[in-house]
Design goal:
Helices cover 53% and strands 17% of the residues. The chain is an alpha+beta fold.
C-alpha cells in the first residue's frame, strides 16, 4: 500500500472517529438542552401564574374567578406564530391548581378536578417547600407522550403554603425544534467531514507527488542517468538536497576511482614505449636508430598529452547535469562548417564528403560547440574507417519528435563482437589501413554530448557495407 494511501486512510480514521464522537455529543445534548430550557421557562411561568392565582385561591373562587376565565381564554387564543419555521396556533400550556392537601381545585383542561395529586413529585415536593417538577407519560405505552410538569407554591398571608400551581407542557411540542437542531448539526457535521477529507486527500496527493518525484530521481541516479533534482517544498526540499549531495559525493568518489584506474591503464603502454626508447638512447646508437627512438618518444608523449586532454574534457562533460544556456543552433550550417574543417583530412585519404539536408530543418536547442565536437568525432571516425575512394555521407533528417543525424561510411563495418562495446571508454577497433588505434574516447564523448542534449547515439552496420552512426535529438 502506498504511503499516500496509508496517510489518507489514517487521516480519514482520525477525522471519522472525531466526527462521530463530536456528533454523538452534540446530537445527544440537543434534546436535554432544549428540555432544560423549556423547564426553565415553565418554572418562570409557574411562579408568575402562582402570584396571579393567589387572590382567587385564598378567596375560594379559583374554579370560576377571573384567573380561571383568563387562563381558559388563553387556551382559545389563536397565536398565529411561526417559530424557526414551525407554525404555532395555540398555547400548549396546561395549568392545574391544588389546595394545601394536594387536591386539584382547578384544571384548565377540565379533566382532573377533585383528583388527589399529592403523590406526584411536582405537588408533593412543592407542598414541603422544595422545587417540584416531574416528567410523566400520558400513555404508559408511548415513550413520546411524556409531559413536563413544573410547580410553584401559592402562599397565604401568613407565609404558609395554601396551594400549588402546576404548569405542564407536552414534550412533543418541542420535538420539531429538537429534530431541526439535530438535522442542522448532522448536515454541517457531514460538510466539515467532507471538507476535512478533501484537505486530507490534497495533503496525501501532495505528499505522494513529492515522494514520487524524489523516488524517480533516485531511480534515475541508480540507473546512471543524468537526473535533475525535482522541485520540492519544506522538508522534502531538504531531503532532495541531502540526496543530491550524497549522490555527488558518491559519484565523485566512484568516478575518481574509475578515472584513475582507466587513465593508469591507458598510460602504461606509451610510458613503457617511452621508457624503452629512453633506455636505448642511453647507449651508443646509429643516427637513424637514434632519430627513430626520439621520434617515438615524441609521438608517445603527444599521445599521452592527447589522452589526458580528452579525459579531462570527458570528465568535465560527464559531470554536467544540464546545458548551461541552450540556444537555437542551425544544425545545417554547423554540419557544413565541420565538413569544411574535415575536408583536407578526407582529401588526404581519398575520401569524399557528402551532406544531405532535409528541407525545413527546424533549429535545435543546444550548445553549438558541443554539437560541433559530436559531429566532428563521428565524421573523423567515419573517415578513418573509409577505404580510399570511399564516400562519407552526412544526413540531417526531420523526425516527428526531433532531428536525426546519420554519418555513414563504406568501410569494413563493425564486427558482431564489438557492437555492444563501441561506446565503452577506451574501446577502439584497429583501422583498416593498419594505423594506430585511436584513444577510444571519441564515441564515448559523442554519446555524452547527445545525452546532455536529451538525445542518444547508436552505431550499427549499414546495408551494402560499412557502418552508420545515428544521433537522435529533440528539436527546440
Amino acid at each position: 500500500m502506498k504511503i499516500a494511501l496509508r496517510v489518507l486512510l489514517g487521516y480519514f480514521l482520525i477525522v471519522a472517529l472525531a466526527a462521530l464522537l463530536l456528533g454523538n455529543v452534540f446530537v445527544q445534548q440537543v434534546k436535554p438542552g432544549v428540555r432544560q430550557a423549556m423547564e426553565d421557562t415553565l418554572a418562570d411561568t409557574a411562579n408568575v401564574l402562582a402570584e396571579l392565582a393567589t387572590d382567587d385561591l385564598l378567596a375560594g373562587r379559583i374554579a370560576d374567578g377571573p384567573f380561571a376565565r383568563r387562563v381558559q381564554a388563553m387556551a382559545r387564543r389563536d397565536l398565529d406564530a411561526r417559530i424557526w419555521g414551525q407554525a404555532k396556533r395555540h398555547a400548549s400550556y396546561r395549568v392545574t391548581v391544588t389546595d394545601a392537601r394536594g387536591i386539584v381545585v382547578f384544571d384548565s383542561a377540565g379533566r382532573d378536578v377533585g383528583r388527589d395529586n399529592s403523590r406526584w413529585n411536582d405537588v408533593y415536593r412543592t407542598l414541603r417547600g422544595q422545587y417540584g417538577a416531574r416528567s410523566t407519560r400520558d400513555d404508559p405505552d408511548d415513550e413520546a407522550s411524556t409531559v413536563m410538569y413544573v410547580a410553584a407554591p401559592i402562599f397565604a398571608a401568613d407565609g404558609t403554603i395554601a396551594g400549588v400551581l402546576t404548569v405542564s407542557k407536552p414534550n412533543r411540542s418541542i420535538q420539531p425544534f429538537i429534530e431541526r437542531s439535530q438535522r442542522t448539526i448532522l448536515h454541517w457535521g457531514w460538510v466539515l467531514l467532507g471538507s476535512a477529507l478533501l484537505v486530507g486527500g490534497l495533503a496525501a496527493w501532495w505528499l505522494s507527488r513529492q515522494l514520487a518525484a524524489l523516488r524517480r530521481y533516485a531511480d534515475a541516479v541508480a540507473r546512471g542517468e543524468r537526473a535533475q533534482l525535482p522541485d520540492a517544498a519544506g522538508e522534502f526540499a531538504d531531503l532532495g538536497r541531502a540526496l543530491e549531495s550524497m549522490r555527488r559525493q558518491l559519484e565523485g568518489k566512484q568516478y575518481v576511482e574509475q578515472y584513475v584506474h582507466a587513465l593508469t591503464h591507458e598510460l602504461k603502454s606509451p610510458l613503457a614505449a617511452i621508457r624503452g626508447a629512453a633506455e636505448l638512447l642511453e647507449g651508443p646508437l646509429p643516427d637513424p636508430d637514434r632519430a627513430r627512438f626520439v621520434a617515438s618518444i615524441g609521438a608517445q608523449s603527444r599521445r599521452m598529452a592527447g589522452l589526458v586532454d580528452r579525459m579531462l574534457a570527458l570528465a568535465a562533460l560527464e559531470h554536467r547535469e544540464a546545458l548551461d544556456a541552450p540556444a537555437p543552433v542551425d544544425l545545417a550550417a554547423l554540419a557544413r562548417t565541420v565538413l569544411e574543417d574535415a575536408a583536407a583530412r578526407a582529401q588526404a585519404r581519398g575520401v569524399t564528403l557528402h551532406l544531405h539536408v532535409a528541407p525545413s530543418l527546424p533549429p535545435l536547442a543546444g550548445d553549438a560547440l558541443l554539437l560541433r565536437q559530436l559531429l566532428a568525432n563521428l565524421i573523423d571516425n567515419a573517415i578513418d574507417f573509409s577505404p580510399a575512394g570511399g564516400v562519407v555521407e552526412v544526413r540531417l533528417q526531420v523526425q516527428p519528435d526531433g532531428l536525426r543525424i546519420e554519418v555513414g561510411d563504406r568501410g569494413p563495418g563493425i564486427p558482431d563482437f564489438a557492437l555492444a562495446r563501441v561506446f565503452e571508454r577506451f574501446y577502439a577497433l584497429p583501422r583498416p589501413d593498419g594505423g594506430a588505434r585511436s584513444s577510444g574516447l571519441g564515441l564515448n564523448f559523442a554519446a555524452e554530448i547527445a545525452k546532455l542534449h536529451g538525445g542518444r547515439v547508436a552505431l550499427g552496420n549499414r546495408e551494402g557495407g560499412g557502418a552508420v552512426a545515428s544521433v537522435e535529438l529533440p528539436a527546440g
